[in-house]
Please model this.
Amino acid sequence: MPIYVYESKNPSKGCAKCCAGLEVRQSLKEDRLTTCPECGGPIERVIQAPGLTHSRTDLHYRAKRAGFKCLKKVQKGEYEKIY
Ligand SMILES: [Zn+2]
Model:
């Protein structure tokens, strides 16, 4: 089953989970999520990456989200997952 990545449409209002991006394993038949399962805020699917390993997705995310204030611990380029 592919893993889809969602993130908050409005990171300044999202919870830690959707703000950092969340990975959801879904079948192709399932509808895409539109709201965060934690806070109910609006989210959107940003990556459809059935071929990528978890670690590559994670690296992509660390890079993409670098600088976002919702990442709480930032030390010399290290971004701690908060979801
Ligand atoms: Zn949320």
Remarks:
- Residues 14-15, 17-18, 36, 38-39, 41 surround zinc ion (CB under 6 Å).
